[in-house]
Amino acid sequence: FGFKGCRKIGGSQIRNLLNAKDFFLFDCDGVIWHGEKAITGAPKVVSSLIKHGKNVFFVTNNCTRPRENYVNKFYRLGFTDVMQEQIFSSSYCSALYLRDVAKVQGKVFVIGGEGVRNELLQAGIPFDGDDDAPDGTIFNCALASDVKAVLVGHDDKFTFLKLAKASCYLRDPECLFLATDVDPWHPLQDGRILPGSGCLTAALEVATGRKALVIGKPSPFMFECISSQFRVDPAQCLMVGDRLETDMLFGANCGLDTMLTLTGISQMKTAQEYRDSDHSTNQSFVPDYVVDTIADFLPAFED
Ligand code: PLP
Ligand code: CA
What we know:
Elements: E1 7-8, H1 11-20, E2 23-26, E3 33-34, E4 37-38, H2 42-51, E5 55-60, H3 67-76, E6 87-89, H4 90-101, E7 107-111, H5 114-123, E8 127-128, E9 147-152, H6 160-169, E10 176-179, E11 185-187, E12 193-195, H7 197-208, E13 213-214, H8 221-229, E14 237-241, H9 244-254, E15 257-261, H10 268-276, E16 289-291
Helix pairs in contact: 4-5, 6-7
Calcium ion binds near residues 27, 30, 242, 243 and 264.
């Protein structure tokens, strides 16, 4: 007790771990890139893993782009061998959930941007949520009668009217309440932050007294999406992330070994505090392994 996890590894320990695992799941922001800049060495790590026959997947809570747009971003940032099939985003998986699990019959009311809309379109799911007449209010706007689900994700055009309409749809207990992810905020340059999807979901939860079903990390659903498309053995997987409360918990929820990389949000000290705390639930935030950066993998591919 108090000694498990947070194992800082390097050199031959990394080499042994990479040899032991067949599936590598990478969070994106903070692990693979910062916004529009690749983490130094990350493109080489990804292509080396692929060259060595490893299966590489990307699991991102960022719902703002459709998958084909991620392929372009990977390419632009120097990741030249990443394919759409390897990318699991919270918007893509939300569309899969609505189509294949909930089998929703009717329209989805969307709070979210291009990524969410495009994935719904590709999944053949009808949706609503385009802004009404700009002077519309909840007193005079039209409400559709066939909305069977509300999907909330990051939306930089979020308005009070969208919140109000979604709240009305959710008064029907049969109307599904889904969130792409509930990330609280994201770091930007210069100490600024971007409020995340979790803020918008929280507003709707307060207005309705309901709890959203979460698709993104830490919910295990994105791993279920991967397993439904590929033959994956959890024991052969390593989940690499930068946020303890989403990525490490996701790994724990899916039965995967976890690695924290220190290029992003969470620091070693917080991980150790979780490890040493008396609350057993905190253990799920504790990474099995810690590295400074995934570039520390590179020596393992030499000779
Ligand atoms: N959602 C939004 C809107 C973001 O901007 C980001 C990070 O930039 C994320 C989610 C988190 O993405 P990831 O899960 O790849 O860290
Ligand atoms: Ca991240």
